[in-house]
Design brief:
Number of strands: 0
Largest sheet: none
Distance between the termini: 98 Å
Order of helices and strands: HH
Structural class: mainly alpha
Mean pLDDT: 85
C-alpha cells in the first residue's frame, strides 16, 4: 500500500512542471533578445560610424580668442 501511495504522490506532484515552464519562458526571452540584437546590429554599426566620422571632423579649441 505504501508503494502505491508513493507512486500516486509522485504522479500528482507538479513542482517539476513549473520548473519546465520557467526554463521554456527564459529560453524564449533569451532567443527574443538574440533576434533583436541581430536585427539592429547593422543599424547600430552604421550610427556608430557616423558619430565617429562627425567627431573626427570637429576640432577642439584650446585657446579663448
Amino acid at each position: 500500500m505504501k508503494l502505491f501511495d508513493l507512486i500516486r504522490s509522485f504522479r500528482n506532484d507538479e513542482d517539476g512542471a513549473v520548473t519546465v515552464d520557467w526554463v521554456v519562458l527564459t529560453a524564449a526571452i533569451v532567443g527574443l533578445g538574440v533576434a533583436v540584437l541581430t536585427a539592429v546590429e547593422g543599424g547600430i554599426e552604421s550610427v556608430t560610424n557616423e558619430i565617429t566620422a562627425e567627431l573626427s571632423r570637429d576640432r577642439v579649441k584650446t585657446t579663448f580668442n
